[in-house]
Amino acid sequence: MNLNYYNTFILIAEDSSADHGEIPQTKRVTKTIGEIQFELLNGHDYEYTQEQVLFETHMRHKGISEANRAEERNAFFAKNQACMRTSPLGKRYGWGLHFNEDGYVKLVAVDSPEYRNLAGKEEITITHAMKSKR
Questions:
Q1: Sequence-separated (6 or more) residues with CB below 8 Å from residue 113
Q2: What is the total count of domains within the chain?
C-alpha cells in the first residue's frame, strides 16, 4: 500500500485563519501531532515521504520504543491512515506541503513567495488541507 503524494501541493485549509507559517507550540507535557510534524519537517526539506512522517509522528506521539519499530510499523500500516491533508500544519498553522516527483515533502509558509509560486503551477496537483469545520 502506498500512501505517498507525488508532484502535489497541499494548500492550507480553506477555513484556516493563518496568514503566516506559525511554529506549533503548546504548553502540554507531551508534544502534539503538529509539534512533532513540524520538528520532523522544518529544516528537513524533501527528506521524508508522507508515510515516513505519519509513522514517525505515531512513534513519537505514542512514545513507542525503537525496539518495537518493525512490529509497530506492520500494525500501523495494516489500518487505514489519515493523510497529511489532515495535519494541523495545514489546517491551523499556515503551512503548505509540497511533495516532489519522488514523494518527498517540504514545508512552505503561506506568506512566502514559494507558496504563491507553487499554488499557481499547472503541472502539479493542487489540493487543500481538510477544513476544520464541516
A1: none
A2: 1
Tell me if 85 is assigned to some domain.
yes
Q: What does residue 59 show for φ and ψ, rounded to 5 degrees?
A: -60, -45
Q: Give the span between the Cα atoms of 50 and 48, in whole angstroms.
A: 7
Domain annotation covers residue 133: no
CA angle, corner 8, sides to 5 and 10, nearest 5?
100
Q: How many helices (H) and strands (E) does the chain have?
A: 5, 5
Say if 80 falls within a structural domain.
yes
Give residue 13's domain range. Answer: 8-128
**Residue 76 domain flag:** yes
Phi and psi based region of residue 7 (left: phi greater than 0; alpha: psi -120 to 50; beta: remaining): left
- 36-70 pLDDT, tens digit each: 999 999 999 999 999 999 999 999 999 999 999 99
Average pLDDT of the residues of the chain: 94
Measured distance CA(121)–CA(134) in Å, rounded: 28
Tens of pLDDT, residue by residue over 63-85, are 999 999 999 999 999 998 889 99
Would you state the cell numbers that stand for residue 99, as one nine-digit string?
511533495
